[in-house]
Amino acid sequence: MIAACKSGDEQKLSEALLSRFTVISCEPYTEEEEEKVVLAGSTVENKDINESNDLAPNFNLTERLNCLRITKELDKFNNGELENNLRTSVYILQKGLTEQRENQISIFKEHFKLELPVYEDGICHFENPENTKIQGNQYFQSKIYKIKMLSFQNNIELYDKQIFFTKKFSELCDTILFGLSLRIPVILEGEAGQGKQNAIHYMAKKLGLDIINIVISKSTKVDDLLMKIIIEKSEIGEILVKNQETELYKAIKSTEEHPKKLILFQGINNSSPAALNILNSIFIMNAKILLSNGSILEKGNMNIIAVFNKGR
């Protein structure tokens, strides 16, 4: 029998339980060791890591690898623009890691030597849907980053009567499209009233995605998220234990190349440590999801957005 826990958590266990184990402390990797371990399972080369490090010296190794993964995806949309795609990836990640406003964004653009169009109030910054149909398929494309995503809508109207395109709203929509099209989970953080929900529902409508709304509260358990255990008694008095798959479970294991579900986590700031651990496994690429019954849930393609409400 082997058990694992975070360093220091073993102190929370009772003496009676601890006496049944030999506790072995595993020292954390040094930065050099971590780089060797991570690169061993990656297609990224040292020279690529060094180039991204020159642009963003404050990024850790994981963030640099994410940056390079995003760059490779951008290459599919902007072929032959490797250097500019790398700068765009660093810019997007840097912008998301920093609480900033327009003056800081301008500094980022100047630093990364990016010539991106600017957002303007009252103007939708997506391409005319009539110009983004390919072989009978409708795509939704950003004018800013040139990325596009398959839409399940046949006829897209860019403007809605209930929506006014402020610069902030347009930026939120572009960020959502950037994440969904590149299969990167998006976390929108901010106070209420900043347009997060409007942007999410606007993009879901234009892309033809069905939203799976998952509200996280402080009492949300792991079983509530993925697989509920139901105990019943049969007609002859036998105890039956059944596993009931949740909508989230079904969406996660979907093998569709272009999933039609949008998983929306509301209020992830309320997550308990156990629920946060599961969410971490869902968000991180190649991480395995361990279910309460001991089995492993294999992940398929997913569209994921989470909302983090500040001040709550």
SSE diagram, text form:
Elements: H1 15-18, H2 31-40, H3 46-55, H4 61-77, H5 82-97, H6 102-112, E1 133-134, E2 137-141, E3 148-150, H7 167-181, E4 186-190, H8 196-207, E5 210-215, H9 222-225, E6 227-233, E7 239-245, H10 247-252, E8 261-266, H11 273-283, E9 289-290, E10 296-297, E11 304-309
Parallel strand pairs: 4-11, 5-8, 8-11
Antiparallel strand pairs: 1-2, 2-3, 6-7, 9-10
Helix pairs in contact: 3-4, 4-5, 5-6, 7-8
- Mean pLDDT, all residues: 83
Number of helices: 11
Strand-and-helix sequence, N→C? HHHHHHEEEHEHEHEEHEHEEE
- The termini sit apart by 41 Å
CA-based shape: globular
Rounded to an integer, what's the Rg over CA atoms?
22 Å
Brief characterization of the structure:
The chain is an alpha/beta fold. Helix content is 37%, strand content 16%. A hairpin with a 5-residue loop joins strand 9 (289-290) and strand 10 (296-297).
